[in-house]
Protein backbone atom coordinates (compact mmCIF):
# COMPACT_ATOMS: atom_id res chain seq x y z
CA UNK A 1 0.00 0.00 0.00
CA UNK A 2 1.21 3.49 -0.87
CA UNK A 3 2.91 5.28 2.06
CA UNK A 4 0.77 8.38 1.49
CA UNK A 5 -2.42 6.30 1.74
CA UNK A 6 -1.23 4.64 4.95
CA UNK A 7 -0.41 8.06 6.45
CA UNK A 8 -3.82 9.42 5.39
CA UNK A 9 -5.61 6.45 6.93
CA UNK A 10 -3.58 6.82 10.12
CA UNK A 11 -4.46 10.53 10.39
CA UNK A 12 -8.12 9.80 9.78
CA UNK A 13 -8.18 7.01 12.36
CA UNK A 14 -6.59 9.26 14.99
CA UNK A 15 -9.01 12.07 14.08
CA UNK A 16 -12.04 9.80 14.44
CA UNK A 17 -10.83 8.39 17.75
CA UNK A 18 -10.23 11.82 19.22
CA UNK A 19 -13.45 13.24 17.80
CA UNK A 20 -15.40 10.47 19.50
CA UNK A 21 -13.32 10.69 22.68
CA UNK A 22 -12.36 7.01 22.55
CA UNK A 23 -9.32 5.25 23.95
CA UNK A 24 -7.04 3.19 21.73
CA UNK A 25 -7.66 0.13 23.89
CA UNK A 26 -11.44 0.36 23.41
CA UNK A 27 -11.14 0.42 19.62
CA UNK A 28 -8.43 -2.24 19.63
CA UNK A 29 -10.69 -4.51 21.66
CA UNK A 30 -13.56 -4.01 19.18
CA UNK A 31 -11.20 -4.74 16.29
CA UNK A 32 -9.88 -7.84 18.07
CA UNK A 33 -6.25 -6.70 18.13
CA UNK A 34 -3.76 -5.61 20.73
CA UNK A 35 -3.47 -1.99 21.77
CA UNK A 36 0.06 -1.98 20.29
CA UNK A 37 -1.21 -3.25 16.92
CA UNK A 38 -3.86 -0.52 16.96
CA UNK A 39 -1.24 2.09 17.90
CA UNK A 40 0.87 0.96 14.94
CA UNK A 41 -2.12 1.59 12.65
CA UNK A 42 -2.72 5.03 14.09
CA UNK A 43 0.96 5.92 13.80
CA UNK A 44 1.19 4.79 10.17
CA UNK A 45 3.50 1.88 10.90
CA UNK A 46 1.07 -0.74 9.56
CA UNK A 47 -0.91 -0.91 6.33
CA UNK A 48 -4.71 -0.99 6.52
CA UNK A 49 -6.28 -4.16 5.17
CA UNK A 50 -9.80 -4.20 3.75
CA UNK A 51 -10.92 -6.08 6.87
CA UNK A 52 -9.35 -3.43 9.11
CA UNK A 53 -11.13 -0.65 7.21
CA UNK A 54 -14.43 -2.55 7.50
CA UNK A 55 -14.03 -2.86 11.27
CA UNK A 56 -13.09 0.81 11.65
CA UNK A 57 -16.14 1.79 9.62
CA UNK A 58 -18.35 -0.42 11.78
CA UNK A 59 -16.97 1.03 15.00
CA UNK A 60 -17.50 4.65 13.92
CA UNK A 61 -20.78 3.98 12.07
CA UNK A 62 -19.52 5.24 8.74
CA UNK A 63 -19.17 3.53 5.39
CA UNK A 64 -15.83 2.09 4.32
CA UNK A 65 -16.02 4.49 1.34
CA UNK A 66 -16.22 7.44 3.75
CA UNK A 67 -13.14 6.15 5.53
CA UNK A 68 -11.31 5.87 2.19
CA UNK A 69 -12.03 9.49 1.23
CA UNK A 70 -9.49 12.17 2.14
CA UNK A 71 -10.10 13.46 5.65
CA UNK A 72 -10.46 17.05 4.48
CA UNK A 73 -13.33 16.18 2.11
CA UNK A 74 -15.35 13.98 4.44
CA UNK A 75 -15.69 15.40 7.90
CA UNK A 76 -16.77 18.82 9.08
CA UNK A 77 -14.93 19.63 12.27
CA UNK A 78 -16.66 22.19 14.44
CA UNK A 79 -19.82 22.92 12.46
CA UNK A 80 -21.92 20.55 14.51
CA UNK A 81 -21.67 17.72 12.03
CA UNK A 82 -19.81 14.57 12.77
CA UNK A 83 -20.09 10.85 12.33
CA UNK A 84 -20.62 10.01 15.97
CA UNK A 85 -23.04 7.15 16.57
CA UNK A 86 -24.42 9.33 19.38
CA UNK A 87 -25.56 12.09 17.05
CA UNK A 88 -28.50 12.08 14.68
CA UNK A 89 -26.84 14.52 12.32
CA UNK A 90 -24.42 12.10 10.66
CA UNK A 91 -23.36 14.12 7.66
CA UNK A 92 -20.46 14.32 5.33
CA UNK A 93 -19.40 17.56 3.76
CA UNK A 94 -21.06 16.38 0.54
CA UNK A 95 -24.39 15.98 2.34
CA UNK A 96 -23.98 19.34 4.05
CA UNK A 97 -23.18 21.00 0.72
CA UNK A 98 -26.18 19.32 -0.93
CA UNK A 99 -28.53 20.54 1.80
CA UNK A 100 -27.11 24.07 1.53
CA UNK A 101 -27.61 23.94 -2.23
CA UNK A 102 -31.22 22.75 -1.80
CA UNK A 103 -31.86 25.58 0.67
CA UNK A 104 -30.42 28.09 -1.78
CA UNK A 105 -32.58 26.72 -4.60
CA UNK A 106 -35.67 27.06 -2.40
CA UNK A 107 -34.78 30.66 -1.57
CA UNK A 108 -34.27 31.42 -5.25
CA UNK A 109 -37.59 29.77 -6.14
CA UNK A 110 -39.42 31.97 -3.63
CA UNK A 111 -37.63 35.08 -4.90
CA UNK A 112 -38.50 34.18 -8.48
CA UNK A 113 -42.17 33.67 -7.56
CA UNK A 114 -42.22 37.10 -5.88
CA UNK A 115 -40.68 38.71 -8.97
CA UNK A 116 -43.32 37.09 -11.20
CA UNK A 117 -46.10 38.34 -8.91
CA UNK A 118 -44.64 41.87 -9.00
CA UNK A 119 -44.37 41.74 -12.80
CA UNK A 120 -47.98 40.56 -13.15
CA UNK A 121 -49.15 43.34 -10.81
CA UNK A 122 -47.27 45.96 -12.89
CA UNK A 123 -48.74 44.59 -16.12
CA UNK A 124 -52.25 44.85 -14.67
CA UNK A 125 -51.55 48.40 -13.52
CA UNK A 126 -50.25 49.37 -16.97
CA UNK A 127 -53.28 47.78 -18.66
CA UNK A 128 -55.57 49.70 -16.33
CA UNK A 129 -53.76 52.97 -17.10
CA UNK A 130 -53.96 52.28 -20.83
CA UNK A 131 -57.67 51.52 -20.64
CA UNK A 132 -58.32 54.73 -18.69
CA UNK A 133 -56.48 56.83 -21.27
CA UNK A 134 -58.55 55.54 -24.19
UniProtKB/TrEMBL annotation:
Keywords: Coiled coil. Pfam families: HTH_3. SMART domains: HTH_XRE. Residues 13-67 form the HTH cro/C1-type domain. The keyword Coiled coil applies. Residues 98-129 form a coiled coil. The keyword Coiled coil applies. This is HTH cro/C1-type domain-containing protein. The lineage of its organism: Bacteria, Pseudomonadati, Bacteroidota, Flavobacteriia, Flavobacteriales.
Amino acid sequence: MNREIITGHARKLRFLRKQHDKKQLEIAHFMEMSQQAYSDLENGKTAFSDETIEKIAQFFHISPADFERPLESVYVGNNGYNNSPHHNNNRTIDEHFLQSYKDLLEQNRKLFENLIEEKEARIKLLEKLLNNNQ
